[in-house]
């Protein structure tokens, strides 16, 4: 897993101290488009389709396919549509790209291909191997991003461990099912204490945290070189915010989460660097009309909710028996999971060879695409059984959205083959 491949050291003010991040998923998406378009051009020549038409089709399918894949993902996983353009972070579904690409093709056919008398089925057979190749490379992008992961694997099975701090897998194994903790240890609830900084409760056996030397009772003073400050989360009215700003210079740092408006309260955090300042800030807040303190935590716990991409490692400085100890850096990792991304890449590279080999022996135009529909529907249904990032969409049967669509695609392939057998002339081998 490599969510961020490297940084371009420019525009640090907009993108952070390291510059513009180049995400693994986005890089693979670009590489997939370039490779598959050129592959489709080569395949198109066999069917008499010009390179210009294949390139036009590739651009249309790229745009409409990504839009469809993104919308499908956002509906399935209930992602706010305000996040639509963050495609570099992952979050697309292949079947959504099929739907979007189909709509894009219909538009292109109606306005362009129909006038040029280019056969849909000749074109479909030409691009089918390129679509399969796109799945091969696309799942490598998923592997780099850490998404589309499988269930916890048994000791006898091949497995992959993903970084927990930045990996999407964290939302399932650490938060949803509580198979493990994010950092390799549990902590004592200190939200009501005078010093709410994290104190280690229990360290997971055979974890990277244990190997790094963390022990029960350790208080986290620093992480990754920065002080583990104390945070107050609070709501405030406009007048209350003005009063908080007056004490900000002496006590801490104010950060906006949901800004205050004229007729509503805003949500903010107030960061201080020591327990003494924390107690002073709490006391001052209690005196300000319009300010309501919600909770207290530390900077580590707060940043865990939105850990920066590409930062898989963590290093702690702890207080143990009144002694300050700097511990070595470590990477919290998930339990071994089924490598479903690799299963799909392997399955689809075999599908590419099958489609290319079958092409000269097809009975009629369109049959290569039908074979891809059959093969992918079967593979995706079985691979979904190993996935752990999707939930069933029905109460009465354990079928995910992609499993349901796989059944429909399989049935559609049968109907399409029957239709083509009646409408397309038989080819001579």
UniProtKB/TrEMBL annotation:
Q: Name one GO biological process term.
A: lipoprotein biosynthetic process
Q: One GO term of the cellular component aspect?
A: plasma membrane
| InterPro entries linked to this entry | Lgt, PDZ, PDZ_sf
Q: Which Gene3D superfamilies match?
A: 2.30.42.10
Q: Which EC numbers characterise this protein's activity in its record? A: 2.5.1.145
Single GO MF annotation:
phosphatidylglycerol-prolipoprotein diacylglyceryl transferase activity
Q: Which domain of life is it from?
A: Bacteria
Lyase in keyword set:
no
Look up the record and name the pathway of this protein. Protein modification; lipoprotein biosynthesis (diacylglyceryl transfer)
The cellular location(s) given in this protein's UniProt record come to: Cell membrane
Functional note: Catalyzes the transfer of the diacylglyceryl group from phosphatidylglycerol to the sulfhydryl group of the N-terminal cysteine of a prolipoprotein, the first step in the formation of mature lipoproteins.
Family in the record: Belongs to the Lgt family.
Name of the protein: Phosphatidylglycerol--prolipoprotein diacylglyceryl transferase
Species this chain originates from: Telmatocola sphagniphila
The organism's taxonomic lineage, starting at the top: Bacteria, Pseudomonadati, Planctomycetota, Planctomycetia, Gemmatales
Q: Which gene encodes it?
A: lgt
């Amino acid at each position: 897993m490599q969510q961020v491949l490297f940084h371009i050291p420019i525009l640090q003010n907009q993108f952070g101290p390291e510059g513009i991040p180049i995400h693994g998923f986005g890089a693979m998406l670009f590489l997939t488009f370039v490779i598959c378009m050129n592959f489709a051009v080569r395949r198109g020549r066999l069917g008499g389709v010009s390179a210009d038409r294949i390139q036009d089709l590739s651009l249309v399918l790229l745009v409409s396919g990504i839009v469809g894949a993104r919308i499908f993902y956002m509906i399935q996983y209930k992602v706010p549509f305000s996040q639509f353009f963050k495609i570099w972070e992952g979050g697309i579904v292949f079947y959504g790209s099929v739907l979007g690409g189909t709509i894009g093709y219909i538009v292109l056919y109606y306005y362009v291909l129909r006038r040029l008398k280019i056969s849909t089925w000749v074109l479909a057979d030409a691009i089918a191997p390129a679509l399969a190749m796109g799945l091969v490379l696309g799942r490598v992008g998923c592997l780099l991003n850490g998404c589309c992961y499988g269930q916890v694997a048994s000791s006898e099975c091949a497995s992959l461990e993903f970084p927990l701090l930045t990996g999407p897998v964290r939302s399932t194994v650490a938060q949803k099912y509580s198979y493990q903790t994010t950092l390799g240890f549990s902590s004592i609830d200190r939200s009501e204490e005078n010093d709410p900084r994290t104190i280690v409760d229990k360290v997971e056996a055979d974890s990277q945290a244990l190997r790094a030397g963390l022990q029960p009772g350790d208080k986290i003073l620093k992480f990754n070189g920065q002080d583990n400050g104390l945070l107050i989360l609070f709501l405030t009215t406009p007048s209350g915010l003005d009063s908080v700003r007056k004490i900000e210079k002496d006590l801490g740092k104010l950060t906006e989460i949901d800004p205050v408006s004229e007729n509503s309260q805003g949500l903010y955090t107030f960061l201080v660097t020591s327990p003494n300042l924390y107690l002073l800030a709490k006391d001052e807040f209690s005196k300000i009309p319009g300010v309501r303190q919600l909770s207290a935590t530390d900077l580590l716990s707060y940043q865990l909710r939105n850990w920066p991409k590409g930062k898989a490692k963590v290093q702690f400085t702890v207080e143990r028996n009144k002694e300050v100890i700097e511990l070595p850096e470590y990477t919290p990792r998930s339990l071994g999971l089924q490598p479903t991304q690799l299963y799909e890449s392997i399955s689809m590279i075999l599908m590419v060879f099958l489609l290319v080999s079958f092409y000269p022996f097809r009975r009629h135009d369109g049959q290569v695409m039908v074979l891809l529909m059959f093969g992918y529907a079967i593979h995706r249904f079985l691979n979904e059984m190993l996935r752990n990032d999707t939930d069933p969409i029905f109460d009465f049967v354990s079928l995910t959205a992609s499993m349901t669509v796989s059944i429909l695609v399989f049935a559609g392939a049968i109907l399409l083959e029957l239709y083509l057998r009646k409408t397309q002339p038989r080819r001579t081998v």
